[in-house]
Design brief:
Elements lengths: L8 H26 L3 H23 L5 H4 L1 H13 L6 E5 L6 H8 L12 H9 L4 E9 L3 E8 L4 E5 L2 E5 L5 E3 L11 E3 L3 H12 L3 H4 L2 E7 L3 E6 L4 E3 L5 H15 L6 E5 L7 E4 L1 H8 L6
Parallel strand pairs: 1-3, 4-7, 7-8, 10-11
Antiparallel strand pairs: 2-3, 4-5, 5-6, 8-9, 9-10, 11-12
Helix pairs in contact: 2-4, 5-6
């Protein structure tokens, strides 16, 4: 009868399991050491960079980036990239002077640790440009962890008064803010409904006579058609609706030749092109009516 061979398969299987267990222990030890090594950090950075490149390529693709892949796939990629370290750690802003920083952060709409690829620069830009002070904004994602914002703020051009309320306006007459800023102290004041839209044209005209312009303290838009000016000594100048620039140059000439504005004058009416109407102060008018009482 032939000899029966002994089965060694269970013994070999046991040895394989033992080796596998030992290999697992060694693999875990290697992982614990490797994950804190410089080489592993470089490898992780490289992997993150690869994910970033792929993500940016998708985000900028003409076909629509993540949206072209589908919302679920796109969101999955964003969060996968975040797992590789592409998360918002800081938001930097350049060019801000008057804009409320809280409103800027609200416009960005992210918090520290959010996936940076979830930030849409164009959406953030539109939100920023809707803020009162912001004329133009540029938004960049600086991978792996920063959002950078460049702001160009609107420049205050004049103060606009209506219903006893003061508002800063820009050169186009658009309201900026009702909040006082240091620059407002030296700005011209325009008063009345519709004055803001015509302020730039008025200032351009007044600046043609710089010495006289320096004396203007306020301009009142009258009847939505013409200007009255208030000078530093309280004299009112009534400009015509038609050709106000001609009347303004005429006033500058009268002041230079006759020192008209240094006299006891309350108002100068330039609305008629062929004549000059001067209204004296009450005291000067009284002396003219009663010359004998002048001492």
């Amino acid at each position: 009868m032939p000899a029966v061979k002994k089965r060694r398969a269970p013994a070999r299987a046991a040895r394989r399991r033992s080796r596998a267990s030992w290999n697992t222990i060694k693999l875990r030890a290697w992982w614990r050491a490797a994950r804190h090594s410089a080489g592993w950090r470089h490898a992780g950075a490289l992997a993150a960079a690869c994910v970033a490149v792929g993500a940016v390529g998708l985000a900028l693709a003409p076909s629509g980036g993540f949206s072209a892949l589908g919302g679920r796939i796109g969101n999955g990629f964003v969060h996968m990239a975040a797992d590789f370290g592409l998360r918002v750690e800081r938001v930097t802003v350049r060019g801000r002077l008057h804009t409320d920083p809280r409103k800027i952060l609200d416009s960005v709409g992210v918090h520290r640790g959010d996936p940076i690829l979830g930030v849409d620069p164009d959406t953030v830009r539109r939100r920023l440009e809707a803020l009162d002070w912001v004329a133009e904004a540029k938004v960049e994602r600086l991978l792996p962890d920063a959002v950078h914002i460049e702001i160009t703020e609107r420049r205050p051009f004049a103060l606009w008064q209506r219903d006893r309320r003061l508002t800063l306006i820009d050169r186009n007459g658009a309201p900026i803010s009702d909040q006082a800023v240091p620059e407002a102290a030296g700005l011209p004041l325009v008063v009345g409904d519709g004055a803001a839209e015509h302020a730039a044209g008025l200032m351009a005209m007044l600046s043609s006579e710089p010495k006289l312009y320096e004396r203007v303290r306020a301009a009142v838009w009258v009847g939505e058609r013409r200007w009255n000016l208030r000078l530093d000594n309280g004299i009112d100048i009534r400009l015509p609706e038609q050709d106000p620039d001609v009347a303004w140059r005429r006033l500058a000439r009268l002041e230079q030749e006759h020192r008209l504005l240094e006299r006891e004058v309350q108002a100068v009416d330039l609305r008629l092109p062929d004549r000059l109407i001067v209204q004296l102060t009450a005291a000067a008018a009284d002396r003219r009516r009663n010359p004998g009482e002048d001492t």
